[in-house]
Specification:
Distance between the termini: 30 Å
CATH superfamily: HIT-like
Number of helices: 2
Structural class: alpha+beta
Shape: globular
Number of strands: 5
Strand content: 15-25%
CATH class: Alpha Beta
CATH topology: HIT family, subunit A
Radius of gyration: 13 Å
Order of helices and strands: HEEEHEE
Length: 113
């Protein structure tokens, strides 16, 4: 989508500190980190939110999770990180493109919100 910031980052139209990319997923550092490690993982294909995902998206969504696991290891936080997906405005989703926040490098409290 032309007006989606995450689509534009994935396409290389908007600069970001990209730490991983392949044919399906792009990961980059969050501009307003909430932990020492705070990455955003986005699929290259636009899906507005998890509520908009379908069974045909299962492989892509699984790829996001596996990329997060690999990035946690690469960032030195394997075994102690949090993945967050905000779904909808009341949950804090502000960019309507499915994405995961990979957070780590500090103790995480519970409940998260």
């Amino acid at each position: 989508m032309k007006d989606c910031i995450f689509c534009r980052i994935a396409a290389g139209e908007i600069p970001a500190t990209v730490v991983f990319k392949d044919d399906e997923v792009v990961a980059f550092r969050d501009l307003s980190p909430q932990a020492p490690v705070h990455l955003l993982l986005v699929p290259r294909r636009h899906i507005a939110s998890l509520d908009e995902a379908h069974a045909a998206d299962a492989s892509l969504l699984g790829r996001l999770l596996l990329a997060a696991k690999d990035l946690a290891a690469r960032e030195g936080i394997a075994g102690g990180y949090r993945l967050v997906n905000n779904c909808g405005p009341s949950a804090g989703q502000s960019v309507f493109h499915v994405h995961l926040h990979l957070l780590g490098g500090r103790p995480m409290g519970w409940p998260p919100g």
